[in-house]
């Protein structure tokens, strides 16, 4: 029998109150471990939700990024990597597979011939809008079962705050810094 989430939270709070100096560290450890588990489960269950369309969660993220109105004319590989917060090396192989499958196209950027633009093909747009999105929204409904709109808004707020802090850490650590040569190679 599973213990209700409210009871688990109360048990955590009682446990951590007994160890006041370590409360923040203990809770932080639990938060980051749960984020790790959620990321793994998103990859596993999210991929299963769209695998009949020939997609993975990574490809779902690329199509989602390219479906935004601001990306209607495509995105450079570097901009797409920054938006998705992945390395260009990881994105490169993914884009190659998606290009092979006909979901995206690559073309020289007319503003900078050294850079390539990634665009969603018509076939990719059909897969995204007609085939994948209904399954993605059904997946969201399942994953967020029991969440009120207010719960979802609060979760989003705290995840954005955490993401901002992590981006600051990345910047301090020198992440996200690119040379012109690396950008030109994308």
Strand and helix order:
HHHEHHEEHHH
- Strand neighbour order, sheet with most strands: 1-3-2
Distance separating the two termini: 52 Å
Percentage of residues in helical conformation: 55-70%
- Major sheet: 3 strands, antiparallel
Q: Helical stretch count?
A: 8
Please describe the topology of this protein.
Elements (H helix, E strand, L loop, with lengths): L4 H14 L4 H28 L6 H10 L8 E2 H8 L3 H13 L3 E6 L2 E9 L1 H22 L5 H24 L7 H6 L1
Antiparallel strand pairs: 1-3, 2-3
Q: Would you give an account of this structure?
A:
This protein has 186 residues and is mainly alpha-helical. It has eight helices and three strands. It has helices spanning 5-18, 23-50, 57-66, 77-84, 88-100, 122-143, 149-172, 180-185; strands at 75-76, 104-109, 112-120. The protein has a three-stranded antiparallel β-sheet with strand order 1-3-2. The radius of gyration is 20 Å and the shape is globular. The N and C termini lie far apart (52 Å). Residues 178-186 have low confidence and may be disordered.
For this entry, give a set of tags.
8 helices, 186 residues, single chain, 3-stranded antiparallel beta sheet, 3 strands, mainly alpha
């Amino acid at each position: 029998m599973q213990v209700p989430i409210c009871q688990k939270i109360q048990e955590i709070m009682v446990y951590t109150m007994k160890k006041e100096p370590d409360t923040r560290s203990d809770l932080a450890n639990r938060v980051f471990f749960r984020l790790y588990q959620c990321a793994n489960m998103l990859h596993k269950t999210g991929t299963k939700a769209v695998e009949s369309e020939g997609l993975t969660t990574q490809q779902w993220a690329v199509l989602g990024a390219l479906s935004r109105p601001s990306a209607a004319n495509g995105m450079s590989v570097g901009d797409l990597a920054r938006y998705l917060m992945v390395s260009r090396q990881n994105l490169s192989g993914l884009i190659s597979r998606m290009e092979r499958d006909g979901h995206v196209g690559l073309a020289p950027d007319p503003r900078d011939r050294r850079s390539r633009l990634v665009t969603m093909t018509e076939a990719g747009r059909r897969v995204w809008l007609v085939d994948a999105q209904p399954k993605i929204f059904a997946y969201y409904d399942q994953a967020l079962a029991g969440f009120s709109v207010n719960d979802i808004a609060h979760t989003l707020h705290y995840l954005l705050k955490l993401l901002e802090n992590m981006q600051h850490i990345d910047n301090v650590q020198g992440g996200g810094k690119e040379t012109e040569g690396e950008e030109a190679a994308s």
